[in-house]
Amino acid sequence: MRTSKFNIPGLVTILVLLAGWEVLVRSGAAKFDYLPAPSGILLASGSLIVSGELFSQALHTVESILIGWTVAAAIGIGLGLALGLSPLLRRWSLASFEVLRPLPAIAFLPLALLLFNFSLTTELVLMIYASVWPVFINTMGGVMGVTSRLYDVSRTLRLSRMQTLVKVIVPAAAPAIVTGCRLSMGLTLVMAIVAEMIANPHGLGYAVISELQAMQPQRMFAYVLFIGMLSIALNAGLLWVSRHILRSHRWAHADHA
Amino acid sequence: MELSRGFRRILESVALDVFRGEFLTIVGGSGTGKTSLLRLLGGLTPASAGDIRFRGRPVNGPPEGVVVVFQDYSRALLQWRTVAANVALGLEGRLGTAALKERVERALEMVGLQHCAGDQPWQLSGGMQQRVQIARALALQPDVLMMDEPFGALDAMTKATMQDELLRVHERTGTSFVFITHDIEEAVYLGDRVVVLGGSPGRIHTTVSIGLPRPRDQITTRQSPEFLQHRLDIHAAVRESAGGDAHF
Prior knowledge:
With about 260 residues, chain A is mainly α.
């Protein structure tokens, strides 16, 4: 039960911590040469917004996240459906996927760099590789979890294979598929930032590194702040969309004895 | 026909006819292959030997005109669809929008759920959910409705209401029913004939014709001497078929 739209005590804690940080830096108690005060970060943020630098960098990152995430979701759902539906396919290919899956995507960065150079392609390849997994695994699990009774129902109502897939299996697996897509969004963002720092000189990740090299800690922190806000915004947007998609799946949480 | 799973025989030399328009009930204790028999008849499981025919044609897969209704309504319904959309499931793409809507309305009206068309199944009671499943089958205007212990999970009062509703549907539509139950009174109350399945592997022990007049009534029919006699006979048959050790 929420009494207020805002979490006042939580907000107070954040403000107190920020104030403490400000005091530590200003009083010289924290002896770091390049640790800016929150007020400095705020000012730098303002100037980045006004100059339009933030917008152009953020645009690149958001674009590549949306492309990468969409492609990853499409591949993941496709693979998940195929392996979820076909025991034969699982027997032949699941072992290979299980070998690839635990390898951290970041370890492939040098390889991707060699193959695709410093480019958007490298960035996208890394993002997609990392974020396919949650969608794939969740979709496959969701499809395999569809009860045999629903297959009986589809058969006795004489639904075609396509109708069974579209009207029964995919909707039944939808909560798992959506969960996979939400998990993969977080990974897509992380991989986008890392790839921009190292492999594709554009976007927010690159901006953080270039401000670091320019010895502009206020601006660097400002970009970090923006990345955090982008992450929150993407998550909130996706939560809203997934609630909308699953609005008829409320039963999954309802008490239905 | 016969059905085996691995080395285990489930049904053995079962020969059964279902006549047009009749209400056939099948009783038997647990483990006698009632559900397996219904799955065979409904085309959901292929027979290991022998053949099953519907209107002279061999059954391989669910035939058009035969629909199965399952006991576990909450799993058999698409919980994310509304009641009306559940009932429409088997007809989508086969009928135009107007015809589909009318057919769904008529099916819901037949089970008394016209006012619930827009609800989600999980919002309804068990009895109402089972009615939705029955309406979904009726919407296809089947020649044969196969029901696997459809009222097994319902309380006694709901069960009685549902039995009478089913008899009214039977009277109105002329659909043949194959109705599985472990409740002997239910089998006698509903059926034109009662098949007693027993043993392991299961086989048909006896078939009893029920001469009780229709329409039947929960109070007068169940008190009539003929009803009580049938109940007694079938009880004895079930016990005998299980080798004197009936448990159900």
